[in-house]
Amino acid sequence: MIQILKSVFLLGVASSALAHIHSGNQIPFSDPRFTLNGIPFSTRAYWMRRANEALPNPCPFAAFGTVIVNHTGNPGLGELICTGSNNNSATGNPTLHGEISAINNCTTILTSPAGPYRLTPSQASAAFTSLTLYTNAESCPMCASAIRWAGFREYVYGTSIPTLIEKGWGQIRIVSAEVFQQSFELPNPSRLLGEVLTNETDPLFSWQFDPDFLCPAGCERLGGRCQSLP
Ligand SMILES: *[C@@H]1O[C@H](CO)[C@@H](O)[C@H](O)[C@H]1NC(C)=O
Ligand SMILES: *[C@@H]1O[C@H](CO)[C@@H](O)[C@H](O)[C@H]1NC(C)=O
Ligand SMILES: *[C@@H]1O[C@H](CO)[C@@H](O)[C@H](O)[C@H]1NC(C)=O
Ligand SMILES: *[C@@H]1O[C@H](CO)[C@@H](O)[C@H](O)[C@H]1NC(C)=O
Ligand SMILES: [Zn+2]
């Protein structure tokens, strides 16, 4: 079932990425009856919620959170390797989107001599090909490219780029499926699962440019902007 849906989805993108963005015809993977690439929806939802919880508070303006998980050889929920969230404003580094923060964090954790993994750089690099990256919003082309360079086994996103654009976010209009399609020369295939648990990720990105949209739980409007309650 998923295989069929996924090929329909990719065909749609192949015909025209831009038309695809405007027509909003992505097929969401939000039906709890689906098993997504061998892993039940409930497990995907658990990690997507953890990606939401990777944020420093319930309503940062840039609410982009990521978790990186080892499902390989781990029945059940799998093992959390690291988290990350958008850190542009705290650091001044414009490349620190949630996904890049998480990849940096995982690299540190996997290679730390004091940590649980103690991998060499080449082992850490190889480890990414067996891991899954969950991110609460579809990756921009920079991050989608980083995900393909890393060779992640799976990449799972919540809110889509077309939805972010609809909500007022400035975006580079290249969807991840297109980056994935164009990266066929890279050695490690990655599975893409889009629009997972969007009913819980979309609200985190819906209040910033819409003064009437309800703040996420634990936050209220102060001076027009959602702020976390003390
Ligand atoms: C979001 O949808 C999923 C099914 O796709 C459901 O399991 C979950 O309870 C929903 N979340 C909320 C907050 O309603
Ligand atoms: C992932 O889990 C499997 C099974 O426990 C283990 O063999 C493998 O080393 C783990 N990968 C990483 C990067 O920790
Ligand atoms: C790195 O990941 C760990 C494990 O999930 C987390 O506790 C820590 O806060 C993360 N560090 C950063 C800078 O995101
Ligand atoms: C963001 O950067 C600050 C300053 O370097 C650091 O203290 C913090 O742990 C970082 N947070 C994340 C989520 O990466
Ligand atoms: Zn990005």
Automatic annotation (TrEMBL):
Signal peptide residues on this chain, from the entry's feature table: 1-19
- Which CDD domains does this one have? nucleoside_deaminase
Gene3D superfamilies per UniProt: Cytidine Deaminase, domain 2
Instruction: Alphabetically list the UniProt keywords.
Output: Signal
The UniProt record lists the keyword Signal? yes
Name the GO terms of the biological process aspect: tRNA wobble adenosine to inosine editing
Pfam family membership, one: dCMP_cyt_deam_1
Instruction: List GO molecular-function terms, semicolon-separated.
Output: tRNA-specific adenosine-34 deaminase activity
Q: Know the name of this protein? A: CMP/dCMP-type deaminase domain-containing protein
Species of provenance: Marasmius oreades
What high-level taxonomic lineage is stated for the organism? Eukaryota, Fungi, Dikarya, Basidiomycota, Agaricomycotina
